[in-house]
């Protein structure tokens, strides 16, 4: 079920009403969350539910077994490893089998051998990468004694399947979300109102900015060979805004929706296009995934507390895996390695941990140095997104080549170019609110302390969505 669908418009108020009618009994609330989440997820294809049930049962059982073998570290290690391997095997079969077999076939053919292999015609289950990583984090955290194993199967199934963040994140940790299912929840009006604001902002980003940018990008992308260089750059910029507003819009809707039900999810975006370096950019983009790889891959490899060459190796390993996580295509892997190279350069220069605070702190505008830093970071991000968007590496390299060879200083008219104005207007609002968790967080800001002003803003946004919404499209990260 899509957030930007008529079905969800009916689904949400019904679930909200029944959920809070059950507020006196936490177990029934949790059970209803599982039922509602399975309806939400099974709306695409009920067969997808078989996989999420299997993942949930295996991870729940692994936690109990790890607890059962308390003091027997080898047995605990075996249980944890078995569950991790099983979940990754399921993910690899559905997501990567054909990719790996095609590449092995090409490799062996280049050496004069022919492989006989069968193509698996699987539909990629929506959100499998997200809920698999969420399940893995639980097993690892129980094994590392960061939290006790839960004995309540309903609580655990609710944690894995919680519908607001099920199919495209944020990727929640059991240490944050599971305890929220283990305690009673009471309706908080202020929390619910702020959740509605964040959802409204997310819908604006997705339906007005992302979907309209997508229409232009999809129409012109495959004709890049006939477009002048500046137009190709503009298309890259439009996709840069499309993927940000699409994915961060989903996160805003998911986080806001969860707040309606009394849950606080992890922040997933922190205004990444205001970053002054690539390391800062990745501390602000898809935060839940980046911290997942940091904690479960980068740190176990030694992190930054080892020799310089090992640090660089760790960066490349993490970003190679991160690229592969995004999809079974060499473009994603090369995109990951591109950013690994940039991060390695920043690390060698010793400036990878700079800029932990918001840009232009307590100032209206950035200084010249900050403007140049943000421009460079944005340009590097655009190059990365062009690789990410390409269908294959040949197209990616050819696209970048044509930027400099197809009349690089000329620009052609593109239908709907005014949509870039929507993205710029959105950035202006986010700049003014860059120290807040989301752009419609009005606390303490004049004149928004007046209800009439706030409601005028809400109505303007709703009217903007109604009038300027693009053609409804699925969220980009559903395929990951």
* N-end to C-end Cα span: 16 Å
- Please give the largest β-sheet: none
- Give the uncertain stretches in residue-range form: none
Helix content: 55-70%
Rounded Rg: 23 Å
Secondary-structure class? mainly alpha
How many strand elements? 0
| Morphology call | globular
pLDDT averaged residue by residue: 90
How many H/I helices?
18
Percentage of β-strand residues: under 5%
Order of H and E elements: HHHHHHHHHHHHHHHHHH
Q: Could you characterize the architecture of this molecule?
A:
- The chain is mainly alpha-helical and 480 residues long.
- The protein is 65% helix and 0% strand.
- The chain has helices spanning 6-21, 26-42, 48-68, 73-95, 97-110, 128-143, 153-161, 174-181, 189-220, 229-260, 278-284, 287-298, 308-326, 330-348, 368-389, 393-405, 419-432, 451-468.
What is the structure about, briefly put?
The protein has 480 residues and is mainly alpha-helical. The chain is 65% helix and 0% strand.
Task: Please write out the topology.
Layout: H1 6-21, H2 26-42, H3 48-68, H4 73-95, H5 97-110, H6 128-143, H7 153-161, H8 174-181, H9 189-220, H10 229-260, H11 278-284, H12 287-298, H13 308-326, H14 330-348, H15 368-389, H16 393-405, H17 419-432, H18 451-468
Helix pairs in contact: 1-2, 2-7, 3-4, 3-6, 3-7, 4-6, 7-8, 9-10, 9-17, 9-18, 10-15, 10-16, 12-13, 13-14, 14-15, 15-16
Which features characterize this protein?
mainly alpha; 18 helices; 480 residues
């Amino acid at each position: 079920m899509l957030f930007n669908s008529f079905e969800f418009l009916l689904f949400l108020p019904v679930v909200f009403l029944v959920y809070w009618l059950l507020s006196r009994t936490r177990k029934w609330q949790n059970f209803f969350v599982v039922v509602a989440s399975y309806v939400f997820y099974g709306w695409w294809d009920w067969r997808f539910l078989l996989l999420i049930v299997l993942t949930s049962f295996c991870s729940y059982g692994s936690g109990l077994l790890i607890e059962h073998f308390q003091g027997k570290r080898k047995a605990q290690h075996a249980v944890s490893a078995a569950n991790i391997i099983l979940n990754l095997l399921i993910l690899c079969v559905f997501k990567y089998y054909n990719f790996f077999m095609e590449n092995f076939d090409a490799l062996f053919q280049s050496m004069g051998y022919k492989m006989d292999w069968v193509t698996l015609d699987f539909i990629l289950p929506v959100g499998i990468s997200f809920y698999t990583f969420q399940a893995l984090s639980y097993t690892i955290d129980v094994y590392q004694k960061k939290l006790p194993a839960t004995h309540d199967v309903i609580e655990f199934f609710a944690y894995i399947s919680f519908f607001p963040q099920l199919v495209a994140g944020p990727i929640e940790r059991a240490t944050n979300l599971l305890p929220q299912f283990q305690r009673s929840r009471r309706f908080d009006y202020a929390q619910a109102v702020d959740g509605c604001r964040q959802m409204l902002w997310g819908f604006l980003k997705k339906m007005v900015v992302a979907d309209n940018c997508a229409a232009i990008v999809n129409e012109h992308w495959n004709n890049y060979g006939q477009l002048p260089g500046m137009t190709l750059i503009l298309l890259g910029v439009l996709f840069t805004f499309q993927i940000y507003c699409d994915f961060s819009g989903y996160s805003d809707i998911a986080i806001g929706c969860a707040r309606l039900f009394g849950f606080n999810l992890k922040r997933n975006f922190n205004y990444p296009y205001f970053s002054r370096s690539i390391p800062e950019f990745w501390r602000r983009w898809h935060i839940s995934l980046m911290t997942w790889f940091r904690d479960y891959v980068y740190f176990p490899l030694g992190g930054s507390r080892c020799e310089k060459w090992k640090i660089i190796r760790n960066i490349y390993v993490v970003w190679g895996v991160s690229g592969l996580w995004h999809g079974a295509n060499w473009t994603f892997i090369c995109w990951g390695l591109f950013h690994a190279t940039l991060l390695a350069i920043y690390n060698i220069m010793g400036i990878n941990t700079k800029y932990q605070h918001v840009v232009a702190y307590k100032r209206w505008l950035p200084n010249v140095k900050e403007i140049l830093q943000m421009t460079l970071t944005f340009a590097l991000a655009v190059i990365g997104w062009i690789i990410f968007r390409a269908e294959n590496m040949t197209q990616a390299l050819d696209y970048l080549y044509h930027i400099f060879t197809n009349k690089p200083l000329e620009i052609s008219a593109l239908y709907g170019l005014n949509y870039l104005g929507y993205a710029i207007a959105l950035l202006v609002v986010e700049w003014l609110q860059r120290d807040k968790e989301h752009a419609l967080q009005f606390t303490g800001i004049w004149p928004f302390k007046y209800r009439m002003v706030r409601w005028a803003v809400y109505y303007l946004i709703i009217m903007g969505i109604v009038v300027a919404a693009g053609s409804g499209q699925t969220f980009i990260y559903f395929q990951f």
